[in-house]
Specification:
Number of strands: 6
Radius of gyration: 36 Å
CATH architecture of the largest domain: Beta Barrel
Structural class: alpha+beta
Keywords: DNA-binding
Order of helices and strands: HHHEEEEHEE
Largest sheet: 6 strands, antiparallel
Helix content: 25-40%
Number of domains: 2
Number of helices: 4
CATH superfamily of the largest domain: Nucleic acid-binding proteins
Strand content: 25-35%
GO molecular function: DNA binding
Length: about 160
């Protein structure tokens, strides 16, 4: 009689174990390992792959059309030469000098920019600036060509 009762219980236990065995293959450790905490990353590039993808392909900000666009720049550099006065016929007062700017990537490299200042800014600069002063400059970037010793024209920049 005991045997008759145990047999259905054993059959039921065997069917449950086979169902659990099938479920184990469905929820393998590879699938279970992909949880929401995989979204966060200590990646040095910052953020997840999805976040980097969105940043890469997002629409850039819109710039309103202006008939005359200027390249606006900001530099931190040292004054290379004493300020030189610019005298023009219409009564405006100006000064110019050379600004030596060290590059961000390689601090041993630098480039030079002609710095022109007019009117009130020129007057203030004459009073306060001297060679080797470290200053912050922002303005419109321009360029001009100038012949060097070999009569080759070289492109220079000015702010």
């Amino acid at each position: 009689m005991e045997t008759n009762r145990l047999r259905p219980l054993l059959n039921q236990a065997i069917s449950y174990s086979s169902q659990l065995h099938r479920l184990r293959f469905i929820s393998s450790s590879a699938i279970v390992g992909q949880r929401a905490w995989g979204f966060f990353s200590d990646d040095p590039e910052g953020g997840s792959a999805v976040y980097r993808h969105v940043l890469k392909f997002q629409r850039p900000s819109t710039i309103k059309y202006r008939s005359q666009l200027h390249n606006s720049v900001s530099f931190i550099g040292t004054i290379n030469r004493p300020l030189t006065r610019i005298n023009i016929g219409n009564g405006r007062f100006g000064v110019h000098t050379i600004l030596n700017v060290k590059t961000y990537r390689d601090y041993n490299q630098s480039f030079r920019v002609l710095l022109k200042m007019w009117d009130e800014m020129a007057e203030m600069s004459v009073q306060h600036l001297k060679p080797n002063d470290l200053i912050y400059v922002s303005g419109h970037l321009g360029s001009y060509a100038m012949a060097d010793e070999t009569e080759d024209f070289r492109m220079n920049y000015k702010v």
